[in-house]
Amino acid sequence: MSSSNNGASSSGLSKTEAEAKVMAETITVSDAKNSLPQPKGQEAASIKDDLEDKKADAQLGSGAKDQEVFFVKDENKVTKELDKSISQKATIYFKGCKDGNYTISARAVKIMIEACQRCTFNFKGRIYTNTIEAWKTVDLTLNIMNDQVKTLQADMSSRMTVQFDTRDSLHSLVWSGVNDLKVKFEDEPTFVHTTGFEQMKQLYAPQELSFSVDQFTTRIVEKEITTEQIVRLANGYPTTEREAKQFDNQQELNAKRAEEFIRNKLKENGITLGSKGIPKKEAGRNEPCPCGSGKKNKKCCNK
């Protein structure tokens, strides 16, 4: 008996069981070179199931035990359609599939894609939460053929292509730790928007970005597709620097308009706001009034 067989026997497991146990305890990470450990027979699958189900529950979040989930796991070179025979109350969860082509015409609560490689997904059916999540993927193509996806979230992935039918169908693509992300539109065959972590490092230099922490959003802004870094306001609300500046400027403008409106209304009733009993700032009669009304001093507070 070889030394490797002796090691397996001493632990009370056959060689196949020992290999399966090692595989089950290995954290699956997307591998562009397709060098991940593979299941070895039914023993490997049975040992692996409990661990994967626990991981799936963690990804599904609170209330996972009460959720209906339709799993598509570890398929290789499969082409098929998931039709309306699937419960519309289910979350459809793809995990560990390779070289597949899937058309999802079923209605679903949500779509989740984990650790799939070289797969194409065609989305035709309604998604009730309008959400697709994909992570730890390599060479993924997502064809979104309707306006059913409001949020597409991608994390820790390489070489992802997302094609929408039109620009109107791109609402919010939120991503972190993605390299080589391409966005296309079916009605614009020659257009490609390429982004990813490397592009963001150049755009936001000299700021040091974190591959696994910093988030970005790709969407249409003023009819142009744009990728921006997501920042958190003091209250934790996610936004972008551009939106935060726009919000501050609008707030300041609104405050000025409100003040002007109040002053005008008071003045219509013979009241000058903030002038009684308060020394006036010195100003010539032809200079702008210190109250900020924009009128000359002689036609405003210094009549």
Q: Approximately how much beta-strand content do the residues carry?
A: 25-35%
- Secondary-structure element sequence? HHHEEEEEEEEEEEHEEEEH
The geometry reads as elongated
Helix content: 10-25%
Count of helical stretches: 5
The tally of beta strands, per DSSP, is 15
What would you call the structural class?
A: alpha/beta
Mean pLDDT: 79
| Rounded radius of gyration (Å) | 29 Å
Q: Unreliable runs, pLDDT <50, ≥5 residues? A: 1-11, 22-48
Largest sheet: 13 strands, mixed
Distance between the termini: 111 Å
Protein name: Adenylate cyclase-associated CAP C-terminal domain-containing protein
InterPro entries: CAP/MinC_C, CAP_C_sf, SEC_C_motif
Features:
303 residues, alpha/beta, 13-stranded mixed sheet
Structure description:
This protein is of the alpha/beta class and 303 residues long. The chain has a domain at 246-299. The chain is 24% helix and 31% strand. It has 5 helices and 15 strands. Strands 1, 2, 3, 4, 5, 6, 7, 8, 9, 10, 11, 12 and 13 form a 13-stranded mixed β-sheet that branches. Strands 14-15 form a two-stranded antiparallel sheet. α2 runs parallel beside α3. The protein is elongated. It comes from Cavenderia fasciculata (Slime mold).
What's this, in brief?
The protein is built from five helices and 15 strands. The chain has 303 residues and is an alpha/beta fold.
Structural topology:
Elements: H1 3-10, H2 15-24, H3 41-60, E1 68-73, E2 79-82, E3 90-95, E4 101-104, E5 110-114, E6 120-123, E7 131-135, E8 138-144, E9 151-164, E10 172-185, E11 188-195, H4 197-203, E12 216-221, E13 224-229, E14 231-232, E15 238-239, H5 241-268
Parallel strand pairs: 1-3, 2-4, 3-5, 4-6, 5-7, 6-8, 7-9, 8-9, 9-10
Antiparallel strand pairs: 10-11, 10-12, 12-13, 14-15
